[in-house]
């Protein structure tokens, strides 16, 4: 370990040696003023609210936090989020799981829009770069009353940057890094540009990633894929007047993974390419001071193509997939008086899964309408009541009500509570597709008799802002989810296959399952520009059929982080510690606890440039069952205009 740190000491020395150079004084003052402003969120009620007033458990991950974490993807940006764990699915795809409900129960949105399902019905957040992101809003708890199916556990809403109105906006970020062991060399240039040209404004971004594969344990197959990615996104806005605008845009992602897989005891070279695209058209109008209308249409497509060398013949091996999603939606908001705010909405969505070597084409339609009433009494009591009706072409109708309350006890303390009902319809993958996971070591069988999952969820919490030193923010929340017909991949008898046993699972409805726990989120600001943050989750889960803990859900997740700004030197540092404990694999086997330490340092070079460096997984934690990347160091430069 000492040799590793000694070898990469340059990562820390280079920025420190530049401490005498001019700092980004003007930019720092603007950034500091922004951090003192309370974040505004939209994911809790679909209307803009201050974070402290939102009647839900929400964590906002800002653009500054994303940069200081050294996060290249949404998956990396969510590593420290409270109540959320990242599950590795199908090799190296990443999905978020909120409050122990599982990776299929968290709805991932981009500016409120659903993406087409990815490989095997999953949205891989490890493929979404961060260059275009303004903030990420994580809503913990069921949100089906607003968003319908798939929001049973919560919502991750990725909010992208806005096109500038009058000035030119430009950013560039170039990063290079490598694993401290063999392989993993990475080169990642990213950039964006935008401008306001009278009534028209635009913003466009691009990201190009090249990462070599790596071999960590000197045993085949290799441990890390070679990755090549080209990503582009953009949006344009036409402001017809101060109150009426039309926006449009889209994105394209070409993501290729090349690496070895052990499939049916055959070592094969796997080349998998994902192509993801989406387009949208949106109208926003304000007809009176107190009424707003939003109309939107969008279309998203996902296609994957897998090549194996040598070719492996198997009726269960999925080599290509195609998904399409089209949605039309509208939302009307009216402030009826100083106390009442009404939101009405409707949407129609069509999902199409193209035919492949395993199944025929599969189409579903979903039509929904919802309403929400936001009531404020005496400037202290906020009540929100909402209900949504979804009509699914395969599984019929489902009502999803939700009620939430927030009461200001005193200027520094707020009490909140909520109840919500959520549901999720089975995916075509769970119903009809047999496939391999974990590099071909596990077989997952479908079940065409699956029923939709439903949940009743409760939470109560305290949120405070105390005048300790320069400020202490604390949030403590208790939650419980009672889930009926939970869909889980249940283990079947293992069969010998060559030298090893192939594990077989089948998707089944568990009669009942529960998840419950406590969440703590804290932030302490001290003199001399020190900031300490903490996030902890204690989680209990139970499969009521077996009495066992639900798989891949740690009983404890903790995060501690510290940030220190040296304004006179234009220097900023961040250190974080993440700990996971008490996880099981679904077969009654306990998995090892593990921890990861990350560090980052940034130095302003002049008015527009910053040099930064960092190290992830400093102590090179190695846990094969979690697919943790080895120790990684990087150096980059960032330019803003």
Automatic annotation (TrEMBL):
It is found in: Cell outer membrane. It holds the Pfam family TonB_dep_Rec_b-barrel. Keywords: Cell outer membrane, Membrane, Receptor, Signal, TonB box, Transmembrane, Transmembrane beta strand, Transport. The keyword Transmembrane applies. Transmembrane segments: none annotated. One of its GO terms (biological process) is siderophore transmembrane transport. It is a multi-pass membrane protein. The keyword Transport applies. GO terms for cellular component: cell outer membrane. Residues 1-25 form the signal peptide. GO terms for molecular function: siderophore uptake transmembrane transporter activity. Coiled coil: none annotated. Residues 51-155 form the TonB-dependent receptor plug domain. InterPro entries: Beta-barrel_TonB, Beta-barrel_TonB_sf, Plug_dom, Plug_dom_sf, TonB-dep_rcpt-like. Residues 227-618 form the TonB-dependent receptor-like beta-barrel domain. Belongs to the TonB-dependent receptor family. This is TonB-denpendent receptor.
């Amino acid at each position: 370990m000492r040799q590793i740190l000694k070898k990469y000491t340059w990562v820390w020395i280079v920025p420190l040696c530049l401490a005498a150079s001019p700092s980004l004084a003007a930019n720092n003052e603007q950034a500091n003023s922004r951090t003192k402003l309370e974040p505004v969120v939209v994911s809790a009620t679909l209307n803009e609210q201050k974070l402290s007033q939102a009647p839900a458990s929400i964590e906002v991950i800002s653009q500054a936090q994303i940069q200081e974490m050294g996060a290249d993807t949404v998956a990396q940006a969510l590593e420290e989020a409270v109540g959320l764990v990242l599950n590795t699915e199908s090799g190296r795809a990443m999905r978020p799981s909120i409050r122990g409900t599982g990776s299929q129960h968290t709805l991932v949105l981009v500016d409120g829009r659903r993406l087409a399902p990815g490989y095997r019905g999953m949205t891989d957040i490890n493929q979404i770069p961060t260059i275009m992101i303004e903030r990420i809003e994580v809503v913990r708890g069921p949100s089906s009353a607003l968003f319908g199916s798939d929001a049973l556990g919560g919502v991750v809403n990725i909010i992208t940057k806005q096109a500038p109105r009058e000035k030119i906006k430009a950013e560039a970020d170039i990063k290079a890094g490598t694993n401290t062991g063999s392989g993993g060399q990475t080169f990642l240039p990213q950039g964006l540009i935008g401008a306001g040209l009278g009534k028209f404004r635009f913003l466009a971004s691009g990201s190009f990633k090249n990462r070599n594969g790596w071999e960590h344990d000197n045993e085949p197959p290799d441990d890390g894929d070679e990755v090549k990615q080209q990503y582009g996104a953009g949006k344009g806005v036409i402001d017809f007047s101060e109150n009426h605008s039309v926006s449009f845009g889209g994105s394209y992602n070409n993501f290729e993974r090349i690496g070895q897989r052990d499939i049916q005891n055959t070592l094969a070279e796997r080349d998998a390419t994902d192509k993801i695209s989406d387009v949208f058209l949106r109208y926003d109008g304000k007809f009176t001071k107190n009424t707003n209308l939003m109309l939107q249409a969008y279309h998203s497509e996902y296609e994957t193509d897998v090549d194996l060398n040598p070719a492996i013949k198997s009726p269960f091996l999925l080599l290509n997939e195609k998904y399409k999603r089209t949605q039309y939606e509208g939302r009307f908001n009216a402030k009826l008086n100083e106390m009442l705010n009404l939101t009405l909405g409707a949407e129609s969505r069509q999902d199409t899964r193209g035919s492949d070597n395993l199944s025929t084409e599969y189409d579903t339609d979903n039509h929904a309408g919802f309403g929400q009433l936001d009531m404020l009494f005496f400037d202290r009591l906020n009540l929100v009541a909402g209900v949504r009706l979804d009509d699914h072409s395969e599984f019929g109708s489902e009502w999803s009500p939700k009620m939430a309350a927030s009461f200001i006890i005193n200027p520094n303390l707020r009490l909140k509570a909520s109840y919500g009902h959520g549901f999720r319809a089975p995916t075509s993958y769970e119903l009809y597709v047999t496939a391999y996971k974990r590099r071909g070591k596990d077989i997952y069988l479908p079940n065409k008799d699956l029923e939709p999952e439903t949940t009743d969820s409760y939470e109560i919490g305290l949120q405070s802002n105390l005048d300790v030193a320069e400020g202490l923010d604390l949030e403590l929340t208790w939650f419980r989810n009672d889930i009926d017909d939970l869909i889980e991949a249940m283990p079947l008898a293992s069969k010998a296959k060559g030298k090893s046993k192939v594990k077989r699972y089948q998707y089944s409805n568990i009669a009942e399952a529960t998840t419950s726990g406590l969440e703590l989120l804290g932030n302490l600001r001290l003199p001399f520009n020190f900031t300490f943050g903490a996030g902890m989750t204690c989680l209990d889960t139970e499969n009521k059929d077996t009495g066992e803990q639900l798989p891949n859900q740690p009983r404890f997740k903790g995060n501690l982080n510290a940030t220190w700004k040296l304004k006179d030197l234009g220097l900023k540092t961040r250190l974080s510690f993440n700990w996971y404990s008490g996880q099981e694999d679904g077969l009654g086997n306990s998995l090892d606890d593990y921890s990861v330490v990350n560090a980052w340092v940034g130095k302003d070079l002049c008015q527009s440039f910053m040099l930064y460096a960092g190290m992830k997984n400093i102590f090179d934690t190695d846990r094969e069952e979690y697919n943790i990347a080895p120790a990684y160091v990087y150096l980059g430069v960032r330019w803003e205009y």
